[in-house]
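Structure ticket #2291
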Amino acid sequence: QVQLVESGGGLVQAGGSLRLSCAASRTIFSRYVMGWYRQAPGKERELVANDASGGITNYADSVKGRFTISRDNAKNTVYLQMNSLKPEDTAVYYCNARHPFLGGVQYWGQGTQVTVSS
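Resolution: structure written out below.
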């Protein structure tokens, strides 16, 4: 019914940058709240950032000032620009689409690995 495809992960040195992309269907992208989550080994999945449109964004405290979520409506794609990466940012990053009114209706991408070495 819905497909989210992440890309852009990889291995980088501490202090480096990566830009993650999540391509969605036009219908989902235009109607759902888009966001990014991450999950490190042995830890719970946590919200990194989301964008509900209308300029409303949320960021985890640990990434504020370093990460930026944005979207390209023409490409039905949401991005996560990650700067000044730290080893603790190492995780699998997942794209998420959440229904704005029915919060329990959510979809997930397959995940993309981000590894930051020191």
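Closing remark: The longest strand covers residues 46-53.
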